[in-house]
Structure formats: structure tokens, C-alpha cells
Design brief:
Elements: E1 9-14, H1 19-28, H2 32-40, E2 42-47, H3 55-64, H4 68-71, H5 87-93, E3 98-101, E4 114-117, H6 133-144, H7 155-167, H8 172-187, H9 196-215, E5 219-224, H10 226-238, H11 249-255, H12 258-277, E6 282-286, E7 290-293, E8 303-308, H13 311-318, E9 325-328, E10 334-337, H14 341-352, E11 355-356, E12 359-360, E13 362-367, E14 370-375, E15 386-388, E16 394-396, H15 397-400, E17 401-407, E18 410-413, E19 416-421, E20 428-429, E21 434-435, H16 436-444
Parallel strand pairs: 1-5, 1-6, 2-20, 2-21, 3-4, 3-5
Antiparallel strand pairs: 2-19, 6-19, 7-18, 8-17, 9-10, 10-14, 11-12, 13-14, 15-16
Helix pairs in contact: 2-12, 3-16, 8-9, 9-10, 9-12, 10-12
């Protein structure tokens, strides 16, 4: 079908926003555009029956309209393994130009009407249009390595990224925010690095809007992760009274408003999306999951994790098979990819043989020729701690691992927000929880609906 509007439907995939926090901040008056969308929408609280509460699982459940028990995804960077059609496949096959910008675990494009820019953690699926390769490569590197103090972006890569942005919609407002971010990181008294997640969302949104203008899709998906990141890191600072281990005053000053700041930044994107589609278009807000306070680690002072500094040096020390590659995903986890299942299985045995202080250093699980692995330690370690393999070889733990710091101050909750603004659908608040799979079916039907006919002038 064709559409009267160049952008008939925009799906805003804002990872793990929390319905109670949205209600609280709208009541406070700091989210005027979320309020505007809410007042025009059918409002649902979504839920999932998936066994695993991980965002890369629930997004696939929404995208495929099937639960995890059917789609089988349990990790990031498994989009290439998905055989079921996803929402955008249905839209493209129905004849709609469709743009997917950053959706988690998207598979490769299957239709000439479908443009996919995969999520930053995707290494097995490349952008369907090489035009976006520079953007995706730069963002992927910086997202994957943001917890590594030794990681550096090459000047050539950064210059290419800057040129891409200048020719793909970089707005003066975003440029100003980015420049201010660099300056404040250097001269500010408080930690400002966490604002980078919001800057990334704004840069991505500028590129997304440029693609909307250039490609004129009838359907477009946009994914943002900044608030999910802030909630995991700073929930303790937002709700210190819920925790036995409360942040120091200096930390509260630096991070106490981080989560609200993230919601307020996304609020501006909601307003722009509503303006883009106009009265005749549709906007869907979906969060897949939400979060809540995580008190499981209070007896040890919170969860503190570590990540490898240099994967290839670590592989060499372990004695991994030649040709192994590493694809970092969330915080301290990474895939190790091998040429064969046997090489991957042997790598798992090597990981099992490494100990420090009498405890196993690694946790891992294998999927064919790939191994998902991470450091098992969840507390700070002594500077002089040694780790050794089965042969007795010993090395300093800090030679191969850098501290990430305290994480998981919040945990995933199965309920999320699902709001639908579409012509002919009046505002209402549904009290019954909506399964994500049903939300997907509802989304697929939106382009089959027409605005009510208007009387001739």
C-alpha cells in the first residue's frame, strides 16, 4: 500500500523506560512531549512471559511476535540467527519503504524496500546500505569499548565519522551539545562522561531524521538506549533511600539527576516525532521492559565488575586457537568467535583452568563456534592479585583486566510502556497487561487503518 504521509508510522523503541517513572515525571511537568503523546494514545503496560529478562530477548519477542521459547534468542549479536520474519519484514513485504535505525538484534535486510542500520553491538550484521558503514563502525567501537580505559578511536576513524555527520543532518543544537560535552569533561568539576549516552542519542536522531527526509519511508523504527544505561548505573542515586549502601554526597551531586536528565532528553525526540508524522500519522512508543531497584548485592556493597583491556593479548596468554576474534557487548561481556566448534570448546576449557585466589576467573557459555564470556568477579580486587592457569603460569590480574566499577543498581522488570497514537484511536488507558507479542500484532495492523474521512471543503 501507499501512504498519504511520507512518514506514516514512527516506532520509538526507547529501551527499558519505566511506566511509574514516566507517570512521576509527567506529573512533575518535565516531560511535556511524553505527556502530549500520552494524551493522544491508547496506553498499555506491556508484559512478557519470557524466561529470560534481558533486553536483547524481549526486543526480539516484540519484533517477531513470538516468545523466546519460539525465537530462541538469548544474547546480543544474534540477529543473524533469527529465521522468523520481524515487524519490518512484514511492512516491507507489504510494499512500504521501511527504515530500521538501531533496533536490537535486527537480522540482515531481506527486501529492497528495507534499510537496516543495526544496533551498536551487532558485528555479524552490517548496515544494508554501505552509506551507513562509517556511522555504524564508529558507534559500535565506542559503545563496545566505553568501559575500557585503554581503548582509543583512531584519528582517521573519528575524522570520517565527523564528515559523515556533517553530510547527514548534524544539527547546530546537537553540535553545540557535543562541543560543550568535550569542554566540560576537560574543565568541569564533576564527572560528565555519562552524558555521552545522551549525545549519542542526539547524533543518531539527527542521522535518522536525515534518512527520513532523503528516503521518505512509510515506516521507521528508532532505538535509544541512554536511559536504560543511566538506570542501571544510577538508580541508587535516584532512590538512595531504598539502598543499604547509599552514595556519598559528592556522588549524589554528580549523578542524582542523571536518570531524569535522560528522560528529559528523550522528551525532545518524542516532540519531534509527533511533529514529523502530523495528525494523519502514527507514533508507537515501546520500551520492551522496564527496571526496578536491585538490592541483591547490598551485602557486598554493590556489584563491581571488570573487563578485559586487550582481547587479543588475553587470547594469546590463554593459548586460544589462532584467528579468534572478540566482539564486546554489554559492559564486561564479549563474544569470542572461532573458526570451528572444536576451537570454541577448547577455549571454554582454557577459561575453566584460570583461577585467582582459589576462585574461577571466568564465566562462559558456548553457542557453536562462539563463546560468550566474562570475568566472574563482582567485587573490587587487590592491586597485587595474581591469576594462574592449569600449568601454573601466573600473571597480574590487572595486566589483563580493567575495573568497570559498580553496575546493576537496578534490575529488569517484565512490564514496559506501549503507547499507540494513531488516527481513529481515541485516548484511553487500558488496565489489562498487554503481552509483547500482542503489541507486535497491533503494531503490524496500524498501516491497514485509515484516518476517518473528512468532509469536503
Amino acid at each position: 500500500m501507499t501512504s498519504e504521509s511520507s512518514n506514516k508510522l514512527i516506532v520509538l523503541e526507547f529501551n527499558e523506560l519505566c511506566p511509574p517513572l514516566l507517570d512521576k515525571l509527567m506529573a512533575k511537568g518535565v516531560l511535556p512531549n511524553f505527556q502530549r503523546l500520552y494524551d493522544q494514545s491508547e496506553v498499555y503496560v506491556s508484559t512478557t512471559s519470557d524466561e529470560s529478562l534481558e533486553p536483547w530477548v524481549q526486543w526480539v519477542s516484540y519484533h517477531t511476535a513470538r516468545p523466546q521459547s519460539v525465537h530462541g534468542v538469548n544474547e546480543l549479536d544474534q540477529g543473524h540467527c533469527i529465521t522468523l520474519p520481524q515487524l519490518w519484514d512484514h511492512f516491507a513485504e507489504a510494499g512500504n519503504e521501511t527504515l530500521v535505525f538501531g533496533a536490537m538484534n535486527a537480522g540482515p535486510s531481506r527486501n529492497e524496500r528495507l534499510t537496516i542500520v543495526p544496533d551498536p553491538w551487532s558485528r555479524q550484521v552490517a548496515p544494508s546500505d554501505k552509506e551507513f558503514a562509517v556511522f555504524h563502525d564508529f558507534v559500535s567501537h565506542n559503545v563496545a569499548e566505553h568501559t575500557n580505559p585503554d581503548a582509543q578511536s583512531g584519528a582517521r576513524q573519528a575524522l570520517a565519522f565527523g564528515r559523515f555527520l556533517m553530510s547527514h543532518g548534524l544539527s547546530p543544537g546537537t553540535l553545540g551539545r557535543a562541543v560543550a560535552q568535550v569542554l566540560l569533561e576537560k574543565i568541569g568539576r564533576r564527572d560528565r562522561r555519562w552524558h555521552r549516552a545522551t549525545i549519542l542519542d542526539l547524533l543518531s536522531w539527527d542521522v535518522f531524521k536525515h534518512a527520513l527526509r532523503k528516503r521518505q519511508p512509510q515506516v521507521a523504527f528508532f532505538f535509544a538506549n541512554s536511559v536504560a544505561f543511566y538506570q542501571h548505573r544510577f538508580w541508587r542515586h535516584m532512590a538512595a533511600e531504598d539502598y543499604a549502601n547509599r552514595p556519598a554526597p559528592a556522588e549524589m551531586a554528580a549523578y542524582g539527576k542523571a536518570i531524569e536528565t535522560g528522560y528529559r532528553a528523550l522528551d525532545s525526540l518524542v516532540g519531534e516525532a509527533l511533529d514529523i508524522v502530523g495528525e494523519s500519522g502514527s507514533v508507537v512508543l515501546v520500551t520492551a521492559l522496564s527496571q526496578e531497584a536491585n538490592l541483591k548485592y547490598e551485602d557486598i556493597g554493590g556489584k563491581f565488575v571488570h573487563r578485559p583491556r586487550d582481547f587479543q593479548k588475553l587470547f594469546a596468554w590463554l593459548g586460544a586457537a589462532s584467528g579468534a576474534t572478540a566482539e564486546p557487548v554489554m559492559t564486561h561481556q564479549a563474544w569470542a568467535s572461532f573458526k570451528s566448534d572444536a576451537d570454541a570448546a577448547a577455549f571454554g576449557e582454557l577459561l575453566d583452568g584460570v583461577t585467582a585466589g582459589g576462585a574461577a576467573v571466568f564465566s562462559w557459555r558456548r553457542d557453536g563456534a562462539r563463546v560468550m564470556f566474562w570475568c566472574a568477579f563482582i567485587r573490587p580486587v587487590a592491586d597485587d592479585m595474581k591469576m594462574q592457569d592449569r600449568s601454573g603460569r601466573s600473571t597480574a590480574f590487572t595486566e589483563f583486566f580493567a575495573p568497570v566499577g559498580y553496575v546493576n543498581n537496578s534490575q529488569h522488570h517484565p512490564e514496559g510502556a506501549f503507547w499507540v497514537k494513531s488516527p481513529g484511536r481515541p485516548h484511553r488507558v487500558e488496565l489489562t497487561r498487554l503481552p509483547l507479542e500482542t503489541a507486535a500484532t497491533l503494531t503490524m495492523g496500524l498501516l491497514d487503518e485509515r484516518p476517518p474521512a473528512r468532509d469536503a471543503a
